[in-house]
Sequence to fold (434 residues):
Amino acid sequence: MPLTRKAYRAAILHSLADPAEVGVEASYEYFEDGLLVIENGRISALGHASDLLPRLPADIDITHYQDALITPGLIDTHIHLPQTGMVGAYGEQLLDWLNTYTFPCESQFADTAHAEEVADIFIKELLRNGTTTALVFGSVHPQSVNAFFEAAEKLDLRMIAGKVMMDRNAPDYLTDTAESSYQQSKALIERWHGKGRLHYAVTPRFAPTSTPEQLALAGQLLGEYPDLYMQTHISENKQEIEWVKALFPERDGYLDVYDHYKLLGERSVFAHGVHLCNEECARLAETGSAVAFCPTSNLFLGSGLFNLPMAEKHKLNVGLGTDIGGGTSFSLLQTLNEAYKVMQLQGARLSPFKSLYLATLGGARALRLEDRIGTLQPGTDADFIVLDYNATPLLSYRLKQANNIAETLFVLMTLGDDRTVLQTYAAGQLVHQL
Ligand code: GUN
Ligand code: ZN
Fold:
């Protein structure tokens, strides 16, 4: 295959490290007039345009953007494909919300044609919002995951997903059994895990909807294949936590249920964790597990305020999640807008560079993919986005008053949304254009 080399010239910004660990200034790299060079789906060079241009062939194809910022593609560490059709469901908190809206909506995925239709809408929506990697819950039906991976594979996206395992405390039409969930997950792993840029996540919905037998088999699967992911929910809602205590009286709290069944580890992502205690944060950090912070969902479902400073104190890996359909936006920019307010309500600050980190490199670290995505370091996958400073009249006017990249970034995260994402590239290919 001939070498395909292309370059993109614009303001360019990416994270280098967690500001909580190295301080804000050392946490990012910014090129006011930068150049990003892509070869065969990977980044081959990044730097100041004035440094790189003389070293490139005169005939190289360069796309030059005015009033735009290139960043890594955004990473959503918690989202539900089969809840695309129920975003913004009125009036309930978690447990009633699941019964009233979520389970009936997810039941439609028994129909393969429906699964394929929604997978298409869902992936388009991710890309429209600049999300290039997501950790995705399917429904209990294997066809939801097949439809998702088939669509993701066509675009060579780096995606992680799994079929929900759920064998109790849900309607009969939506439950599997411990054994069938094991067999179906295994078949999906064999088909998809490690294919192209796709990865499989063992997906017990949450402790209340799995029997001890099912949780044990989920843990067994993780031991049977290398580098599998595990995703579930934890400590999102106070009623939910009491329910887990009643269902598993022999265990020492919610996290201990998952710990007992060997579900903690370096590729395990626990959604929410709003009500985790210090000891649980320490145990999650010790095992290399990660938490997905889902601010729009936590506010919309009235779940509570995630304590990011506590997670930082324990050096716990945290990614950002939209949690569609408990969350209300596919946009990680809008998710950061709400994250900032969640911190404000706790008397804490979320700096724009910490926000950038959460939506990119922090998410990549939570998923143990920082050598592939989440930055623009040469050698990594060419998954990046172009944000348009003139996306709306207000954004355009407001950004003219910004004095530096910190202010620009913060305004982009506060006012920005899908309209701000001019283009999305995955493995060097244009996969969304406004
Ligand atoms: N806990 C168990 N299932 C779900 C779900 O679908 N969404 C959210 N937000 N929490 C859950
Ligand atoms: Zn969720």
User: Anything to note?
Assistant: The chain has two domains: 5-72+376-433, 74-330. Residues 5-72+376-433 form a domain with the Urease, subunit C; domain 1 fold (CATH 2.30.40.10).
